[in-house]
Amino acid sequence: AQSVTQPDIHITVSEGASLELRCNYSYGATPYLFWYVQSPGQGLQLLLKYFSGDTLVQGIKGFEAEFKRSQSSFNLRKPSVHWSDAAEYFCAVAPRFMTTDSWGKLQFGAGTQVVVTP
Amino acid sequence: DGGITQSPKYLFRKEGQNVTLSCEQNLNHDAMYWYRQDPGQGLRLIYYSQIVNDFQKGDIAEGYSVSREKKESFPLTVTSAQKNPTAFYLCASGGIDTQYFGPGTRLTVL
User: Fold this and answer.
1) CB of A28 within 8 Å of any CB in chain B?
2) Is A49 on the interface with B (CB under 8 A)?
């Protein structure tokens, strides 16, 4: 079955420290890959996406993600966390080869809550 | 400013009542989506519409209904048949490369 797994439900990080959020997927063919961020009580904002090409993807707010085909992973990183990065982060995938049923459909992981301490 | 608006932000409903959540977009997107968010479960797709007057069920459509009479609007009705409607509901629009999300409606059943 197709799935998206975010192994860490909750991560606490000190301000200024580095952050890495994990995402693993199980799909027949490499899907399109996304990271979204959600501030409390708000909608989701796209941080970055991977369709093809360079496996290191740069996004907004200083985030980057690396696609590793051999590990079926798409981990999100930030070298130095700011207090404003406290939020929930979602990894999402969409099928690369779409049918009428699957068109435009994103499948989300359960999310990782990030807490930033002073 | 282009974007997606959802109203109301908070909604309270008594058991047995239907309630309609509004979603409007001025991004000129053909496709629109409704998601439900519960703690620890990520987002699950309820319904989506690729074009006006057409929509398809997502993964958890039971107890919900939608309409798509205008390109800009995609209202969601939570019916009394939905057994556990208390959740955060998010509307989105756009294609597979980027979906834009509204701010959400928090529905609480009393």
Assistant:
1) no
2) yes
Q: Which residues of B touch A111 (CB under 8 A)?
A: 40, 42
Give dist(CA B48, CA B93) in Å, integer: 9
Per-residue confidence (pLDDT) for residue A101, from 0 to 100: 61
Note the pLDDT tens digit of each residue in A73-87.
999 999 999 999 999
In the predicted structure, residue B99 carries a pLDDT above the cut 90: no
Q: How far apart are CA B77 and CA B67, in angstroms?
A: 9
Q: Rounded to whole angstroms, how far apart are CA atoms A103 and A118? A: 43
Kindly determine whether residue B96 and residue A46, on different chains, have CB atoms separated by under 8 Å. no
B/e letters for B1-18, b = 16+ CB within 10 Å, e = fewer, are eeebebeeeebebeeeee
- Coil, strand, or helix at residue B60? coil
User: Rounded to an integer, what distance in angstroms lies between the CA atom of residue A50 and that of residue B94?
Assistant: 17
Tokens representing residue B20 in the block:
């309609």
CB-nearest partner of A111 from B42, B90, B92: B42
Element (H, E) at A90: strand A87-94
In B, which residues are within 8 Å of A4 by CB distance? 42
